[in-house]
Amino acid sequence: MKRLSAEEFRQAEKTPLIIVLDNVRSMYNVGSILRTADGFRIERVCLCGITGTPPHQEIHKTALGAEDSVEWTYYKNTLDCINDLRNNGFIIVALEQVEESQNMMTWQDSRPMAIIVGNEVKGVSQDVVDVADYCLEIPQIGCKHSFNVACAAAMVMWQYYKNFSVHNSVNN
Hints:
The chain has 172 residues and is α/β, with parallel strands linked by helices. Helices cover 38% and strands 21% of the residues.
């Protein structure tokens, strides 16, 4: 099972995707997102606002060491993070249910991008949604109106990775 060491991971070609956590409260969700980011060799995770940062026991419990392999940065303000990412050529996408959101099932954008996931209760902040290039929505057919943020982030990372790997060779 061709597993990379943390050092090999840091040196390896990455999937050109950045996951931005906008005020995610649960350290377990942060750890889970880092672990999934490791699995898809995501470029970086940005932790913003009240989102906790490593080292932290609860993050480590779900990240299982991915906090040491995946590059992460902290921003006090999500909008500052977005400005930096946009200035570096990333498309900004909010994972949020809004009137004009795109359905993730038909989404095929494989440009370098940053996808923003939001707070467990409030979702992506409105000021962040307002500056996104577009919004993406995961279709749902049950009673609930949202997925757990770590699960939603995992779904969108998989969909982007699938779209990206069709056109590129990061998947080997």
